[in-house]
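Case study B.
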Amino acid sequence: MEAVPVNLPPALTDSEQVLRRALGASEDIIFQRYSLKADGRPALLAFVEGMIDRVSLENQVVEVMASTDPSGGLPPRLSDLGRLLVHLSSHTEERTAELAAEAVFRGHAVLLVDGYPGALILGVQGWEDRPVQSAPSETGLRGPRDGFVENIVTNISLIRRRLNDPNLVVRYWRVGARSKTRVAVLHMADITRERLVSEIAQRVAAIEFDGIFDALQVRELLTGQSYTPFPKMEGTERPDMVAMALLGGKVAVLVDNSPFVLTAPTTLGDTFWSADDYYTVPAVTALVRLFRFFGAFATTFLSPLYIGIMMFNPGLVRTDLAIYFARERAGIPLTPALEVVFLETMMEILHEATVRLPTKVGSAATVVGGLIIGQAAVEARLVSGIVVIVAAISAIGSFTIPGQEMGQVWRATKWVLIVAATTFGVYGVFAASWVLFSWLASQDSFGTPYMAPLAPLIPKDLAGDSFVRAPWGTLRWREKTLRTKNKARTSAPQARKYRDGGER
Amino acid sequence: MRRTALLMMVMLLLGTGCWDARPIEQRAFVMMMGIDRTPAGQYRVTIQVQRAGYEGQAGGGQRARAPTSQVLVNEGATPRQALEHARDELARELDTTFLELTVIGREVAERHLEELDWIVRAFRVPVSGYVAVAPADAESVVRGNAPGYGMPAQFALFSLLSGGWTRSAAIVEGHMWLMFNRNFFTPLEDAFAPVLAAREDGQLNWQGLAVFKERRLAGLLSEPEAAHFNLLLGARSQMVVAAKVPERQGAKASLFLQTVRVKRRVTWQGDRPVIQIRLLARGILQELIGMRMWEDADERAVENALADALATDVKALVRRLQDLGSDPLGFGELARERAPYRREASSGDAWRDAYRRAEVDVVVTMRMVSPGYMK
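Model:
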């Protein structure tokens, strides 16, 4: 049952009691008493320690109260008193104790003055913030270096700096019954499909959970996915990527206290593109993307195919190779499947062990795990040298995929294929892949097919920004799959001019 | 969708499963197989398998360079039974997935070829596998060596593959599926296979072509004849043609053939078939001795001389095949195509009779694509 709001009465002793009740019994909430110079009436400041800027409070409020003595006496209304005593750009008036308490927990200070009903909410938030730094999970060689931080206002400003357009619309929500986290939904009013915006806004408003701490947590609540490893919304730390996504017709979701910003809709192809691709010449981008696909393929399929070939279908490789494999495997006590499981498990343990270690310790652990254990296992003839190569290529392949998350997704997929390969050989790998890709083709992200522009086949999108990135000048159209309001990114004469290599 | 998924599951369970798993090191890949007949009427099967790798060396240590292959000889009432005995000798599963070459002993090729028809069905052999005939027994060929190759069987494989080490026209590719299924297609064609021999020093060597007549070895062709056979098949044409230039006293020329376009057909003169062969050959002049090419007429004279020499060789080859009564080039099928209702092309026996009487008409057009500096 919802609590009935309690108004703050004019008498300070009463209003203090009401406010204390609303704030609870926490010891980090500070109550400080003052008296106004004008007529000596008592006032009370309440705030949470560490969440306010003490210097602003002292200079702009406390000192003013102690020195201001208006000749005509104090004004009858609290809002007028605020204008007189508070030299801050942001201050509002609240009537109820609940709203005043909520403001205190958000980092505001609350001023109660005897004889005035209600409270003045003072915008003196100030806490330690991480400065804008480069995105640790998406480092790039080219392009801007700044990354999102944990402050939603800073994050929005980073996007706004890139899109000086009145059509960039920001809408706020408070989600989380207890955390009351700020969530912002951003879109371009004249580009993004209305239905997409309203759908995401509706889902944000409908979130019912006690605490929201990160954007990737919000992603799960928005997309409603259960155990699907493939993400339906992409999380990025780079403001330039978000700005690009917004211009492309996507929607961005920002969550306070999270350095990740979600963009939607997302296709499987999007997870392969890195920020560097957009700042490198298209020919190189095409090559790099090709190798990235090879990397993903190697991560997912190399180990299962090794098992399939070694245990069931050696006829699939050329004669020399089969004979070489047979000779290398001779005398190895583990079956090919167990070899792979052993080494892949080692790799996963190593990965998990090093990912959270400090850099210096981490590199030492990698060396110990990768070199010493691998080398020792081969020397001891516990595993064959080939499987070490297979596992190493498989591990390195996962690092070619931008974003750590997708690397993990493909590695998880690999384990399913390993089971299929161990049970049914190469045929099992193909059957499992068929099921996987059929399932992926049936998925969608906020109405956009997950495998687009391959399934369904959209040649126009395929020629734009997919396996290759067309030169910027010729990227005239926004992706068809996003069904944007405004389809062209540049005018036809401009595109022609670019194509012709100069002025017409 | 649901039906496809169901079908796939059924196929998964029926097609393969963990019960079929056999790690690669537990398989003995048969690389080459020779089939002979013993005087007692048994089949003697000689197989070359890859030697198991570092067996008995688990636990580390140096890897010794062991011989790469081993040869097993076994006898049985049928080739399959002989192979079964070979299987008993090995601690590994016999696997014919990589059986690239099957060598047929002369005795088997002359009298018992039809008994091998089941060979492509009984064993799981690759459809691209090759077949060869040994000039004597197949065992000595399978025991042969090929320095420079990890396995002796690879010699045959690499030389037969068009991307292999040689493009010599004298090496004719004989495919196992073609050899043992030819009669399914038409009774008017005969089989052929290259001859593989082990020289005195044991080195494997191609030595011409074996041609068959009604599933019996009809005769062996020499290496130059095999080269012209290849030319008429349209398979390989890289060979040297040499000739005297009759229009220029004492002059000789040789030319390396690059491409040859072959047109073959069979027409009729009354009840006598006429085998027409038209060749358009292009090549690079290699040698010109005793003359110079100043004029176009010199060039024509050289071309004509080379064309005549090639035509004579080709005609001689066809005559040889006629004498042997073997039609591996499929002229009978060409005759049937052109006149399907003629009695002569209605059966194998009728065609063989007409084939022996056939007239051979060969016309070669020679073009020098590069006459060299001499012009």
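Chain A is about 45% helix and 10% strand. The remaining cases will be described in the next quarterly update.
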